[in-house]
Give the backbone structure.
Amino acid sequence: MSKLLVLRMLKKSACLQNSTSNRYILGTFQRALCSSNSKPKICVVGSGPAGFYTAQSLIKGHKDLTIDMLERLPVPFGLVRYGVAPDHPEVKNVINQFSTLAEGGRLHFHGNVNVGKDVTVEELRQMYDVVVLSYGAEDDKELGIPGEHLDGVLSARAFVGWYNGLPEDRQVNPSLDCDTAVIIGQGNVALDVARMLLTPIDILKKTDITQYSLERIAESKIKHVYLIGRRGPLQIACTIKELREMVKLPECNGILHQKDFEHIKDIVADLPRAKKRLTQLMVDTAFTPKEDKTGSSKNWRMEFFRSPTEVLPTQDGTKVAGIRLEMNKLQGEIGQEYAVATGNFEDIPCGLVLRSIGYKSTCIDTTVPFDTKKGIVINDKGRVTNIKGLYCSGWVKRGPQGVILSSLNDAMETSKVILEDIKNEVIKPRHRSERQSTRHFLQERGVQCISFDDWKKIDNIETERGNAVGKPREKIASIQEMLRVVK
């Protein structure tokens, strides 16, 4: 129905008696006029797995809504691009699915937009019916021990960003001129980092690892990697896929101490399936004679029941010389064991310490209720507490846990409550003029907004550069260069 026709009918109805039926007709026409251009408009902050999965669920669940996706970096895909190990290309195949969504006409990518700086959450709430925070966890937890800030101590997050081309980690300078590295943590990220340090360079050079990190790793003197866990084998956080890759690593031996498995090798059959397979692999590795890997001079080992208490400095007090560990014992009920210090210590000489004890999200806007201890937005099933129209999904919602697919179920939960709130008119779409568009708003503030078509230009250049040297891609690790490419 055209606006002109509606106005004529409204004018005619206004001349009629003010009966109940006429008031009903008038109200119907008014609603038709107001809703003619009022389809739900949603903003998703963050273009990693959580953001894309949330957008995907929303688009599937509502045929009329449209989504603007804002990303701090000029390029999309977040953790898939910058968190997945270079030798795991199959995990990155989900990018094809996300690209199809971004090219479908209802999702509009806006890169190089820093929410909290270029635009506030409150301003986004004025421009959109719904705002979803899905920006992930960009900081890391610290150990809180003496010597942690010595030269040679890095977060695993920064090290992963370094070899994956994350612009902010381009200048990370890992100490690879030593023979021993110690990684605090035994989760998948810790094993990824260990694998990157020990994998033969001929394998790495066929991946999308950045050229500058490939060259540094090629010159690395590291031969021994320790993976430290404060609890025991039954509490290990990695998956069997990651551990199996470590066990099969070419030209490298894995060392697990038989004493750590004496008390559990006979109960493996009674464990839940996933835990049973993982534990059996560790038992087999500990009790099977080491494979003769010709020319092998490298090894990795898992040390359980240990907590770091101090990073030991060199004589001049500037660099890492080693790490001091305190022995632990477990207490508590089965399934809820916790580590208790024994007062016994050991030192491991090393020149590189990588902490891999978890990530955490940060608050990007003071108007958003945030639990700084847990590193999450305060929410109930994705609804941000006490702020109508504001939601969250992914790590900023539940904390940094799980693999990429874990974000799918979480995103579906958040999208479900959003769709419910739209259906029940808790969220009522508002009419907006073109002047209120995000792109126009950002242009007025001098922000160079990157579209998905712009990203494809960057993608093509990276692929061409990679193919020229036998790699799937060579990532551009400079934001300034990315922006120059698309001008």
User: Anything to note?
Assistant: The chain has 17 helices and 20 strands. The longest strand covers residues 320-331. The radius of gyration is 27 Å.
